[in-house]
Amino acid sequence: MQEVILALSTIIAIAALGTLLAKLIKQPPIIAYLLVGIIVGPLGLKLIGPGENAEIVQLFAHIGVAFLLFIVGLNLDIRIFKELGKVATGAGIAEIALTGGIGFVIARLLSFETASAIYLGAALAFSSTVVVVKILSDKKEIDTLHGRIALGILIVEDIVAAIALMTLPLVEQGGSLTLIAQKFGTVLGLAIFIFVGTAIINKKVLDFLAKSQEALFLFGIAWALILATLFDALGFSLEIGALIAGMSLASSPYTFEIAGRMKPLRDFFMVLFFVFFGSQLATSVTSTLVFQALLFSGFVIIGKPIVVMVVLRAFGYTKRTNFLASTSLAQISEFSLILILLGYNLGHISQELMSLAVLIAVITIGISSYSIYYAHSIFNALAPVLHLLESTKKEQKQKVEEKYDIIIFGSHRIGHKIIEATRDLKLKILVIDHNPRAIINLQEKGYDTIFGDAGEREFLAELPLDKTKIIISTISDTQANLTIQERLKAIRSKATYLATAEQPYAALDLYKSGIDYVIIPHHLGGDLIASIIKTFKLDQTKYTKLGKDHLMKLLKNKENSTYT
C-alpha cells in the first residue's frame, strides 16, 4: 500500500508541474495529463504498469469519467435546442457521418483492419466538450452565435457518443437487434422517469439542500455515482448513467453551483483518468506511428472544420460564423478516448491503436487550443480565400436606419447599464450584439437592434458609423475594438469612440490606435468604491441603504432576465 501511495503522490506532483508548464504556453491541462501519463507509464518511469498501481489508478479513472460526464450533462440543457435545434441536429449528425466516414476511408487506405478503421473514424468524429467550453468561456464567447452553434453540435456529438458507449457492450454480448431495441427502450424509459421525477421533486428538494452548501455538494456526488452505478448494474454503461444524472439537473437553478463545487473533485479524478490513458502509450513510438498520427491529426485540424463549414453554409450562416464555429471543433474528444479504451477492453482493437489515439489527442487538442484562442485573427488573414464558404442566404439582420445618436456594441453587463442610462436621455440608440437571446430580449423592450459581429469588416461597412455621434463598445475583444477603429478611420468618422479592455496593457494598445476613451471595468469599480468611501466615510446607515438599493436593482434585473 505504501508503494501505491508513493506512486500516486509522485504522479500528482508531476501532473502539478505539467499543469503549470501547460498554463505558461496556453495549453489546456488535458495535454499535460496525457504527457504525464506517457512519462509515468511503461515507456517512462513505469509508475503505472501491470499490478496494484494500475488497478487503483484505473479505478480512480472510472470515477473520474463518471464525474466528467455528470458535469458535461449539467451543461447539456436540452432547452438550447429551442434556439438552434435544427442546425445543431443537422450539422451535428452530418459532421459525425462525414468526418467519421472520411476517417474510416483514410484508415482503410492505410491498411487498417475494418474494426480498427471503424473505431478510428468514430474517434475522429467527436470533438471535446471540455476543451471547447473551457476556452470559449475564457474568451466570453460561449453566448455568441458561433459559440452556441458549436455547443449545440457538441451536445449532439455527446449524445451519439453516449449511445455508442451503451451499444458496444450489448453487441459484444451477442445481443440481437430485438434485445438491443429493448435495452434502448429501457434506457429511454428510465431516463424519462428520471427527468420527470427530478422535475417534480427538483424544486423542493434542491431548495432545501441549497440552504447548506455541503449538503448540495454531497447530493451532487451521490446523484452522479448512484445513477452511474444503477445503469452499470442494469447492464448499461457507467458513462450513460452519469450523463443522464447530469442532464436531469441541467435546467435546475442550482446547476452552476453544483458544477462549481464538484469541479475540484472532478479535476482530481480526471487527472488520473487522462494520466492513465496517457500511460497506455505502451508501444514504441515508431516513424510509422508518428506519420499516421500526423496524417489523422491534419485531417482533424483542417479537414473536419472544412466539413463543418460546408454543412453550416447550407443553413445560411456567414463565412465568419461558419469559420469560428467550425475551428472550435478541430480536436478529438474525451469521448473518443473513452470509446477507444472500451474497444481495447472488449478486444476489438490493439494496443497500437490506443497509442495512436493518444498521439492524435495530444496533437489536435494542443494545436486547436491555439486556433480557438486566435480564431478571429486567423479568420481575418484567411477571409479573402473563404468566399466560397459564404452562404447565398443571409443571417437574420434588422433594417438599419440612416442616423443614430449612439451605437452600442454589446448589451451584456456594462452594455446593459449604458443602454438604461442613454434611454433616459431620450436619445436614438442602436444596439448591436452577437447573442441571439440578447437581441430578442432587447427587441421585446422596444430597442432598435441588429444582430452582428463587431469584428467583421463587411458587417461594419453596412452600419451608419459616419452619421453617429458616439460609438461605445463594451466588448473586451481587443481585435474587434481595433477593427471598429480601423473602419472609423477609413470613413473619417468624427464620432467619439469609447471601447472596453479587461487589462491595462490592452487599454494602452487601444489608446495608441486613437480611441478616445477606454473603459477598464475593475479600475472604474475601484474608483467608484474610493469615491463612496470618501463620501460616506464611517456612516454605516448610508452603506446599508446603498446596499439595499443595489439589491433591489439586482432582483429587478434577474426578474427581467436582462443580464447575469
Explained architecture:
With 564 residues, this protein is mostly helical. The protein is 69% helix and 5% strand. The chain is built from 23 helices and six strands. Helix 2 runs parallel beside helix 11 and helix 4 (81-109) crosses helix 7. The protein has a six-stranded parallel beta sheet, with helices on both faces. The radius of gyration is 26 Å and the shape is globular. It has helices at 2-24, 29-40, 52-74, 81-109, 114-125, 129-138, 145-172, 177-209, 213-233, 238-247, 255-279, 287-313, 319-327, 334-345, 351-373, 375-382, 414-424, 436-444, 457-460, 478-490, 504-512, 521-536, 540-560; strands at residues 404-409, 429-433, 448-451, 468-473, 496-500, 517-519.
Short key terms for the protein model shown above:
Rossmann fold, globular, mainly alpha, Na+/H+ antiporter like fold, 69% helix, 564 residues, 6-stranded parallel sheet
Topology:
Blueprint: H1 2-24, H2 29-40, H3 52-74, H4 81-109, H5 114-125, H6 129-138, H7 145-172, H8 177-209, H9 213-233, H10 238-247, H11 255-279, H12 287-313, H13 319-327, H14 334-345, H15 351-373, H16 375-382, E1 404-409, H17 414-424, E2 429-433, H18 436-444, E3 448-451, H19 457-460, E4 468-473, H20 478-490, E5 496-500, H21 504-512, E6 517-519, H22 521-536, H23 540-560
Parallel strand pairs: 1-2, 1-4, 2-3, 4-5, 5-6
